Amino acid sequence: MKRLPDWIRTRCRADRHETKLILRKHGLSTVCEEARCPNRSECFSKPTATFMILGHECTRNCGFCAVNSAPPGPPDPEEPERIAAAASELGLKYVVITSVTRDDLPDGGAGHFAKTIEAVRRSLPSSRIEVLTPDFLGDRESLKTVLAAGPDVFNHNVETIERLYRVVRPQAVFRRSLSVLTQARLIAPAIFVKSGFMLGLGETREEVTELLHLLAETGCEIVTIGQYLRPTGKNIPVVEYVRPEVFEEIRSAALGMGFRYVASAPLVRSSMNAEEMFRPASGR
Ligand code: SF4
Q1: Contact at 8 Å (CB) between 267 and 226?
Q2: Which range marks the domain in which residue 193 is found?
Q3: Atom 3 of ligand 1 has which residue's CA nearest to it?
């Protein structure tokens, strides 16, 4: 593995014990832990957490991801209420819900997302809700199901440039992911559309610029850009540690393309500080 450069420093605070206890009590997973996010100590100390629904096993096998690839079990019908209870106990004002990809389910898990959004709304009516979803194989009905439940933000990450999909997201299709964002914008214009990608996988600056233009064309309003960090030795290697000043240049260029909010720095992650991104983007 490449040695981490000086500018990638994760704050090693102790994980907030209470947050973990509440999550365990309700038998819940967070993507923060499953994906070995480098910011999990910082986020858990707030408290904030991104709930991962629909199980621990994923039907896909992305080169960058630490989630286990295996046939998943059936969705747990009580999970939406348990998420709502934990979010309420944690006193969250902004709840992020994500999932593994469930290509085995007829609706890709969209109905379960909708039930989870509805349960959180019932228990925390004034909280904001963001969903970070898989592509649902581009299925419009699944997208409509999720959006009809009324999240404040719909997030779907493209993760990387088109040329690298073969190794980074082998079962995904770049144009399909763009179409998911476009469809979300058209189906529910009042819901903010967000996406994100990683640097350091071998992309060129020109390819990043092209990706940003394509994202802007979908109607996506919020973009997150962070450094890829190899989560385990089984994942694809880091090609480059991109310097912070390059992230800043890309952020400025993206803002010039009309995005409402761009978070671009080595340790930026899709759902980290999601509330802080939502406020300036929405003006609310
Ligand atoms: S689809 Fe999502 S959870 Fe599944 S392997 Fe890819 S990144 Fe990980």
Answers
A1: yes
A2: 17-282
A3: 100
Give the Cα separation of 19 and 99 in Å (integer).
Answer: 20
pLDDT tens per residue, range 129-180: 999 999 999 999 999 999 999 999 999 999 999 999 999 999 999 999 999 9
Count of beta carbons in the 10 Å neighbourhood of residue 137 = 14
Residue 10 lies in a domain: no
Q: Could you tell me if residue 112 is inside a domain? A: yes
Inside any domain, residue 7: no
Q: Which atom of ligand 1 is nearest to the CA of 67?
A: 8
Q: Which residues, judged by CB distance below 6 Å to any ligand atom, belong to the binding site of ligand 1?
A: 58, 60-62, 65, 67, 69, 100-101, 134
Q: What's the domain count of the chain?
A: 1
Q: Are 202 and 240 spatial neighbours (Cβ–Cβ below 8 Å)?
A: yes
Which domain CATH number covers 235? 3.20.20.70
Report CA-CA distances (Å) from 87 to 84, 112, 124, 211. 5, 17, 8, 35
Q: Residue 61 CA: which ligand 1 atom is closest?
A: 5
Q: Express each pLDDT in 33-74 by its tens digit.
A: 666 666 666 666 665 678 999 999 999 999 999 999 999 999
Give the distance (Å) from ligand 1 centre to CA of residue 97.
14
Which pTM was predicted? 0.92
| Closest ligand 1 atom to 169 CA | 6
Q: Rounded to the nearest whole angstrom, what is the distance from the C-alpha of residue 243 to the centroid of ligand 1?
A: 26
Asked whether residue 1 is assigned to any structural domain, the reply reads: no
